[in-house]
Give the backbone structure.
Amino acid sequence: MSPPAQPGVPGGRGSKGPPARKLLCMCSLSLCLTYLCYSLMGGTGPAALRSPAALPGSAAPGAPRSPTAFPVTVAPRSPGSPPGSLGAPAPSAAPPRASNGSREGAADTWLRTQLAPGEVITAQSGAFERDPQESSTTDEELSRAGSPGSRGGSSSTTPDYGEKRLPQALIIGVKKGGTRALLEAIRAHPDVRAVGTEPHFFDRNYEKGLEWYRNVMPKTLEGQITMEKTPSYFVTNEAPRRIHSMAKDTKLIVVVRNPVTRAISDYTQTLSKKPEIPTFEVLAFKNRTLGLIDASWSAIRIGIYALHLENWLQYFPLSQILFVSGERLITDPAGEMAKVQDFLGLKRIVTEKHFYFNKTKGFPCLKKPEDSSAPRCLGKSKGRTHPKIDPDVIHRLRKFYKPFNVMFYQMTGQDFQWEQEESDK
């Protein structure tokens, strides 16, 4: 199902914009130039960056194309230069110090990985996913779920009949976008069986093989859909190729959210587990005085949706990808679930009768329409109170994300109106 056309968004169905293939190339070029220019502004020095490689050629929908993107050659790091920047300073460049608001000490190294001399960064090299993605799934849970004879990760609701199948649909992202809420809602549908844990097969456990992956899944009957969700797939460069290799007709669901809010939520989750980490303001900038955003920090990088989507469009057509609004999943859960059920070819069974808005938590809770018991809400890890962030930091992040958001709207044919949300505040 192709995404509906949106007023004023080129590339939507029925628009008079360029063909999808031409639009993808245009977006790729814009992404390359935008990201490259920003990297140059980030104090990397002319010796640290090289010209972008040739952009990807056109290919049939769903067929793999050659690796694209904007290779960035990184010069050897000089002693004392801050690690983790997309282009390390040339040897003669002096790193910014804390006197002008930049990071130092623990803030320099937290959630960043030093690049080796001569390392080349491309959109498919894995360098844009250098930080491990946090997960609620433990290795012990996965071992139990993947062991022979296990009933999968949702044993409390999985019948002892049927058979285990590889998933036909995946919730692939994004972290802190609303994937858990979506998974719990779609599991209320009788024709859907989904594993409760995050298997992380296509990013962390791929070497265990498809049979291990199949054993993680719950048992299903003929006609039922097997699903799983692992939000880190969306930003894992190898995931699209691996999923395409498993089944090229796999349906993909991406829950997206205003990237500024998403970044703060991401930070809040980590802060609850590591209260000693630096402040959001410190981590968000390469240099606070110059206003240079640090896109190498995972909390920032994940929200550059257009960059990650370009990787998926090398293997899957838009008709196989559904983009769910994390904001509307809160304000109109039944409406968003109607789109999800249509996309999966399911009867619309999960409706407004399944939801109850919890004012304390600030989001809908799930209930069975025939039950009189209290609604079942997501756990205490959801709906955390965000720390107060300097308004100037919010403003700078909005400016940083805006061109990438516009590209994302053009690539998907959907306007998520994040800029409109911000102007209303």
